[in-house]
Amino acid sequence: MTVIDRGAFRPWGFPLASWAFAIRIWIAAVVAVYLSFWLELEAPSSAILTVAILAEPTRGQALEKAAFRLVATGIGVAASIIITGIFSQTRDLLLIAFAIWLGLCVYVSGLLDGNRAYAAVLSGYTVAFLAVGQIDNPAHVFESSMARGAAIVIGVLSVTIINDLLSAPDRHPRLAAQLDEIHRRIRDCAKQTIFGEIIKPVTYAALIAEIVALRPEIASLTVESSSGPARGAAAQNAATALVAQLHALRALGALPPIAEATTRENILRVLEAADDHGPSAPQAAGLLAAQGDTNGMVATSTWTFRELMRRDQQVRENLAALRGDRHPPWRWRTLRHRSHLTSAESGVRAAIWFGLAEAFLAYAGWSAASGSLSLVGVVIGLGAVTPNPRATTALALVTAPIAGALAGIIEFFVLDGVSDFPLLAIALAPLIVGAALVMTSANRAVSVVARLSLIFAVSIFAPTNPQTYNAQSYLYSSLFVCIAIALLLCAQLLVPPVSGLRRRRRLVASAQSELAQAPLWDRRHRPEEEMFRDAIRIGEIISAGGGVTSNTGTVEEALSHFDQTSAIRLCIDKLKAIANGPSDTDVRAALISRDPLTLLNAARTLRAASVDNPALGDLSATLVVLSLFIEAARARPQNIREAA
User: Fold this and answer.
1) Threshold 0.85, pTM exceeds
2) Domains of the chain, residue spans
3) 270 contacts 280 by C-beta, under 8 angstroms
4) What b/e readout covers 199-228, taking b as 16+ CB neighbours within 10 angstroms?
5) How many Å apart are CA 243 and CA 239, to the nearest integer?
6) Are the C-beta atoms of residues 375 and 49 closer than 8 Å to each other?
């Protein structure tokens, strides 16, 4: 925390930005309820629920989430009408069809991230509200769908307009600062590497995890403003270049130290004296070349250092484009790693959880069973976009009684029978503002509890026009919220979610398989884009393991696969520049064999011919780096059993 942050005015411990966000959400909720009452919509609570779900601190995130919510609601409405139309006369088949649909949506969400994953699960639990919620009155599904859709549109418009009128902040300044901070830390690691210090693998893994975690936020920049597409492209390029710079840094660290202490100090001095356009790579490389060459290692070190500085310059250029709202001169995509098997297994388990809860509630004879089943679908969907669905359900179970108490206080102690809208707006202020403030907490669990509290409290309170004050209805609603979540938690204890252990094993096996299949001569994507996809896999391994410091052996193995696979792709990319050359066949054979000695022999041949063609020297250095990565991998113990 900076000195400015410590001295800033923080009412009740929250910064002014958090208060501005909370007040915007309260105003948007009040506007949404008022418009729903004025239009006499059947489901005004859906409008305020939409505001609670779209509560995001920046304009771009809220707009992107709103757009996906509209699309997902349309898909959910269509699915509800189709499922109800086919199975309206068979209650059991309707519930089975919904369980299958929910499982399919959870499967799709596992292949996506950010608001796209949210849209997938929303398509699933929208059917829970419409088809399952109206299971005893299927003829009313179409009218209920239209009413819910209208309320959601009101909620989306309310959030969008209030954010624009009250100048909700953009995300890109803070995102640029985060990327710049990561860049600074990578440069610090580069300085340590130049001095011969060994950077721990967990340090590299932590940097990779931070970079790839920004991918969903980078995607939201596109809709932030008219400059959004340019900002999004620049941020994508910057994140991809940071991953490529880390790979170049690991390559530099894999090389044996060949420069004397005095030369290293001179190189570091050149780096520190660099201007805003980046360090003078040729000058620093010249210091290395002056050492004289032995077995090509100086030439390889010189090329690796230039590669590190080239990536550094790419990061700088794209960060400048991000701050200046300019389109970058090139475009890299931030590819995402997808595990179809894990996603499919998660979808099957989600369908089983709903089926187990359905088996208890649907045949219990309770009048509110359909409402509870709807909430089961909602919590399954919300948990599907988190690393640990069962932990999310447990948090929801803790939150439900708190939300019920808050709804009861508003309904029977604050309002206590009044029907004036201004009093309703004032009564909602402590709940919405308080929950929105806590949502800005850096503690992930606390933030989730605050959001769930707001969603559950609004669902239980369910503002209507005129407001009804029925103690029995309130008690039933509160009770069945808790029962639904408790049943889901029991189902997840009987059929646990896909464990982190299993996910890590599959992710490492995926990396091994991809390395075993290399080299692939005809690739669809650029090496940098595929590096980012592999970096996302490393981030998923870290997330599945509970953190960077957990399962360090598995993380090291994943980094080793990342090093080798990326180096092979770079070799293939450089090989295209000398296609059909005299050494083309030898290099291809060396890459296929992946024998360090064969790679070094091919590199020596290329280096001898590099006087007339610098591209041969670059390929030679890349082959040497690859051989060192392979030797390092063979020297260390394999940790796939730890992942298993």
Assistant:
1) yes
2) 3-170+337-494, 172-223+228-323, 500-643
3) yes
4) bebbebbbbbbbbbbbbbbbbbbbbbbebb
5) 7
6) no
Per the document, the length of the chain is: 644
Q: How many whole angstroms separate alpha carbon 231 and alpha carbon 226?
A: 10
Paired tokens of 222? 């596109």
3-class secondary-structure state, position 278: strand
Burial class (CB in 10 A: 0-12, 13-18, 19+), 421: middle
Structure tokens that stand for 471 in this block: 């103690």
Nearest to 586 by CA among 595, 294, 307, 525: 595
Please give the Cα distance from 382 to 48 (Å, whole number). 18
> Would you state the structure tokens that stand for residue 469, as one six-digit string?
């004050």
The DSSP letter of residue 442 is: S
3-class secondary-structure state, position 629: helix
Yes or no: say if 449 and 395 are a contact pair by the CB < 8 Å rule. Answer: yes
Q: For residue 466, is the peptide bond before it cis, meaning its omega torsion is within 30 degrees of 0?
A: yes
Whole-angstrom distance, CA of residue 110 vs CA of residue 340: 8
pLDDT of 378 over the 60 cut:
yes
* Both tokens assigned to 359: 């088996």
Distance CA(601)–CA(623), nearest Å, equals 9
Distance of alpha carbon 171 from alpha carbon 64, whole angstroms: 12
Kindly state the tokens that stand for 557. 């193995």
- Residue 369 near residue 476, CB atoms below 8 Å: no
End-to-end CA distance of the chain: 40
pLDDT in tens, 547-602: 767 778 889 999 999 999 999 999 999 888 776 665 678 888 999 999 999 999 99
